[in-house]
Write a sequence for this structure.
C-alpha cells in the first residue's frame, strides 16, 4: 500500500502543483479531442442528437470507478485517504438543477468553458466572465444562506454505505446501468438526430466484436468479478518491513532530540504534530508547548491524519516507542519519537544543569541552554545549588504563550473538489 | 465546409476511457479528483481581496478561499490544474487545426443574443457549482467514480435541469 503517493509523502506541495499542471494538460487535451470545446456539440446532448456528453462522462466514471475498486481491493491504494466531498443533500440538489439550467443556457460547464476559451471561442470567454459574475453574486449573498448551504448534511458517504449494499454490487450495478444507457443513447441519436451509429459502436450491425464492444464486455466482466470480490476499503495493512524499521532505529532516524525540538519551537518552525501520550491529568499539569493530548488508552486508528509529520512523547521513552511501532504498523509514513521523552525535556531544556568543570565550548553551550530554558519558563540549575543528581524541588515551569494547541485536523480547511 | 486538414473528434467511448485513466491517475498520485470551478472561486476571492481586502476578510466565502494568509491563495492545486486544462485544450486544438476565433451558436440566433445567454449561463453555473460544492468535473466525474452520494444526486439533477429547460432554448442550438 503506497498510494495515494502524495498522501504518503512521496512529494511535497510544490511538486504537487507541477502534477496539477500536467494532469490539467491531459484533462484539457482529452476534453478538446472529445469535442467538448464546442458548445453546440455539448448542447446537442439535451436534444438527444449527440449523446457524447453522456457517453464520455459515464465511460470515464466507470473506468475510474473500476480502477479504484480493484486497486483498492489488491491493497495498492488506500481509498480512505481519497478526499470525499461531504454530502449536503438539498443544497446539492438545488445546485445541480441550477447548474443544469446554466449548462443548457450557456452551453458549457466550467471545465469545458476553459477549453472553449482556450481554443478561441468568444462565447466561451464570455461564459467565463459570467462565471465570475455568478461567483461574486454568490459571495455577496453567501452570509445570508451560509447555514442553509450546510443543511441536510449526510457527511462523507458513498452509495454502498448509504444503502447498506456491498461495494462490489454497486460497482457492478453502475456498469450495467452505464452500458444500458449507452445503448439507449445510440438509439436516441438515431431517432432524434437522424445520425447513423458510428461504425463499430454498440448498436451498429453486424454483430461482430469491435473495440468499443470489447471495452464494454471488458467492463462487464470486471463488474461481474467485483460482484464477488468484496470490499475495496482495506484499511491500511501496510506490510511491516522489519529490516527497514530496524535500520531506522539503529540509525537513529526514528527520533528527534529535545534540543532540536526546542530550537524548532523557538524559531516558530515546528512542523510536527506533537502528541503527548500520557494521561489527561499529567498533560494538564505540564506538556511541551503546542503538544496535544492523546492518551494511549484512548488510541483509535484513523484519529490521526496520515499526512502530518508526527512526533510522539511520553514520560520516558517506552510508551512512545510502543506507539511508534503501532503507527508504523498502520502505515503512517512519518512518525518520530522525542528522544528521552518528557524526562529529557525537563532535564535538558527546562532545568539544564551546569557541571562543576566545563570546557569553554561547554560553557558556551550552557549559556545557550539558559536562554532556551528561560524561553520555556524553566530555570537553569547552576552548580552552586548543590550536588548533582540530588532530588530537589524544582520551580514549576511557566508556559510560554504559544496559542492554542492545534486540533487534530488538516492545517488549512479548504474545499477540495471542483 | 471543413478544411481538409481538420481532424474529427475522437470516438466518445475512447475519449471517455482515456479521461477515466486521467481521473484514475490523479486519484492514485494525489488522493483527490479533478476539478474546475474551485479555481475560479480562488481567482475571484484573490481579486476581490486585492481590491477590497476588508470586504473580502469579512465575507465567509472569500475568506474560505483565501486560506491561511501565509502562502498566496493562487498557489493552489486547482488553479494550476485549470491552467493546464487551458494549455491542453489549446495544444489539442492546435494539433488538429481547430484554433479559430468564433462564436458557437445555432443557425437561428444572433451573435449578441448568444453571448448574452453565455454570460447568463456562466453566472448560473457559478452559483450552482458553489451550492453543489463542485461542477461536472469535481462532483460529476470525480465524485461519480468515488460513488459519492451527493455527487450522484447532483448529476441526476444536472441532467434533469438541463433537459427541463432545453425546449425553451432550442432556437439557440438547433
Amino acid at each position: 500500500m503506497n498510494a495515494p503517493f502524495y498522501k504518503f509523502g512521496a512529494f511535497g506541495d510544490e511538486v504537487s502543483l507541477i502534477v496539477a499542471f500536467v494532469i490539467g494538460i491531459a484533462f484539457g487535451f482529452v476534453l478538446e479531442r472529445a469535442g467538448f470545446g464546442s458548445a453546440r456539440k455539448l448542447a446537442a446532448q439535451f436534444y438527444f442528437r449527440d449523446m457524447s456528453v453522456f457517453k464520455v462522462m459515464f465511460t470515464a466514471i466507470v473506468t475510474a470507478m473500476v480502477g479504484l475498486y480493484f486497486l483498492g481491493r489488491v491493497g495498492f491504494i488506500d481509498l480512505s485517504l481519497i478526499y470525499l466531498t461531504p454530502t449536503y443533500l438539498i443544497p446539492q440538489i438545488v445546485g445541480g438543477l441550477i447548474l443544469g439550467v446554466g449548462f443548457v443556457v450557456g452551453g458549457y460547464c466550467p471545465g469545458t468553458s476553459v477549453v472553449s476559451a482556450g481554443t478561441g471561442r468568444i462565447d466561451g470567454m464570455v461564459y467565463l466572465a459570467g462565471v465570475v459574475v455568478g461567483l461574486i453574486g454568490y459571495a455577496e449573498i453567501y452570509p445570508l444562506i451560509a447555514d442553509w448551504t450546510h443543511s441536510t448534511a449526510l457527511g462523507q458517504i458513498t452509495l454502498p454505505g448509504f444503502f447498506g449494499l456491498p461495494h462490489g454490487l454497486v460497482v457492478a450495478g453502475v456498469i450495467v446501468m452505464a452500458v444500458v444507457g449507452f445503448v439507449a443513447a445510440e438509439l436516441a441519436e438515431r431517432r432524434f438526430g437522424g445520425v447513423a451509429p458510428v461504425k463499430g459502436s454498440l448498436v451498429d450491425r453486424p454483430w461482430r466484436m469491435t473495440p468499443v464492444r470489447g471495452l464494454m464486455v471488458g467492463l462487464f466482466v470486471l463488474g461481474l468479478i467485483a460482484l464477488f470480490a468484496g470490499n475495496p476499503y482495506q484499511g491500511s495493512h501496510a506490510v511491516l518491513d522489519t529490516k527497514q524499521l530496524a535500520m531506522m532505529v539503529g540509525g537513529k532516524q526514528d527520533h528527534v532530540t529535545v534540543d532540536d525540538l526546542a530550537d524548532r519551537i523557538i524559531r516558530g518552525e515546528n512542523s510536527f504534530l506533537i502528541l503527548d501520550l500520557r494521561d489527561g491529568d499529567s498533560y494538564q499539569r505540564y506538556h511541551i508547548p503546542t503538544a496535544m493530548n492523546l492518551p494511549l488508552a484512548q488510541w483509535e486508528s484513523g484519529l490521526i491524519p496520515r499526512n502530518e509529520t508526527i512526533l510522539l512523547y511520553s514520560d520516558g521513552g517506552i510508551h512512545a516507542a510502543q506507539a511508534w511501532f503501532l503507527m508504523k504498523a498502520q502505515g503512517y509514513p512519518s512518525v518520530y519519537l522525542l528522544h528521552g521523552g518528557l524526562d529529557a525535556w525537563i532535564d535538558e531544556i527546562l532545568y539544564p544543569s551546569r557541571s562543576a568543570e566545563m570546557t569553554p565550548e561547554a560553557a558556551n553551550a550552557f549559556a545557550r541552554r539558559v536562554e532556551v530554558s528561560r524561553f520555556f519558563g524553566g530555570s537553569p540549575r547552576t552548580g552552586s545549588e548543590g550536588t548533582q543528581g540530588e532530588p530537589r524541588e524544582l520551580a514549576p515551569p511557566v508556559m510560554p504563550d504559544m496559542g492554542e494547541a492545534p486540533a487534530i485536523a488538516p492545517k488549512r480547511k479548504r474545499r477540495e473538489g471542483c | 465546409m471543413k478544411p481538409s486538414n481538420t481532424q474529427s473528434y475522437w470516438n466518445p467511448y475512447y475519449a471517455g476511457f482515456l479521461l477515466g485513466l486521467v481521473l484514475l491517475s490523479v486519484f492514485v498520485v494525489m488522493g483527490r479528483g479533478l476539478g474546475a470551478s474551485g479555481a475560479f472561486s480562488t481567482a475571484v476571492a484573490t481579486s476581490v481581496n486585492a481590491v477590497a481586502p476588508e470586504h473580502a476578510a469579512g465575507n465567509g466565502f472569500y475568506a474560505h478561499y483565501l486560506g491561511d494568509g501565509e502562502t498566496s491563495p493562487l498557489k493552489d492545486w486547482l488553479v494550476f490544474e485549470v491552467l493546464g486544462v487551458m494549455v491542453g485544450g489549446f495544444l489539442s486544438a492546435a494539433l488538429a487545426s481547430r484554433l479559430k476565433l468564433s462564436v458557437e451558436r445555432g443557425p437561428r440566433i444572433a451573435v449578441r443574443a448568444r453571448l448574452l445567454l453565455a454570460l447568463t449561463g456562466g453566472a448560473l453555473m457559478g452559483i450552482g457549482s458553489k451550492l453543489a460544492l463542485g461542477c461536472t468535473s469535481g462532483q460529476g466525474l470525480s465524485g461519480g467514480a468515488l460513488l459519492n452520494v451527493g455527487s450522484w444526486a447532483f448529476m441526476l439533477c444536472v441532467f434533469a435541469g438541463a433537459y427541463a429547460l432545453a425546449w425553451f432554448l432550442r432556437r439557440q442550438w438547433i
Summary: Residues 385-392, 403-418 of chain A have pLDDT under 50 and may be disordered. The two ends of chain A are 27 Å apart (CA to CA). Chain A has two domains: 13-229, 240-418.
